[in-house]
Write a structure and sequence with these properties.
5 helices, alpha/beta, single chain, Rossmann fold, 38% helix, 5 strands, five-stranded parallel sheet
């Protein structure tokens, strides 16, 4: 196994996301790797904006739902010690945005939580499964029991 130089945490803000974040942080420390973070918004309507799918963290949109997501995202980034330049908040389809960003930013490892869904959810595919099957790099699916 090669050493990882750039690790991307795919954050989803689930109740168990702190466990996934700590795993990514510990791996970054172990490999002395840069840690980046992405959160893909797919659960709130996208307002008509001039900046497209990538959301600037420093600009107030005036959109309460978006500002709440941004604040939660910024707090997570700060708690992990991730520089703003390595934080991406984007609109889109999570699996696509994650693996495209990973390729664009030369990521070696993507860390994502896996809820171990069964039945119909498994057949339709989860974000972790979608990332795993399309990523150009290693993917660590952190098992979340629950």
């Amino acid at each position: 196994m090669n050493d990882y130089r750039h690790i991307l945490l795919a954050a989803d803000f689930a109740e168990t996301s702190e466990m996934v974040a700590m795993k990514a942080k510990s791996l970054a420390k172990l490999y002395d790797a840069r840690l980046s973070i992405v959160h893909v918004l797919d659960n709130i309507p996208m307002p008509d904006t001039h900046y497209g799918a990538v959301i600037p963290l420093e600009t107030d949109s005036g959109y309460d739902l978006l500002e709440a997501e941004k604040n939660q995202f910024k707090l997570l980034g700060q708690s992990l010690g991730i520089e703003t330049a390595n934080q991406w908040l984007v609109w889109g389809i999570p699996k696509q945005e994650i693996y495209q960003l990973a390729r664009q930013e030369a990521v070696d490892l993507i860390v994502v939580g896996s809820h171990g869904r069964h039945g119909l959810a498994l057949l339709m595919g989860s974000t972790a499964a979608g990332v795993l099957h399309h990523a150009h790099c290693d993917v660590l699916a952190v098992r979340i029991n629950g």
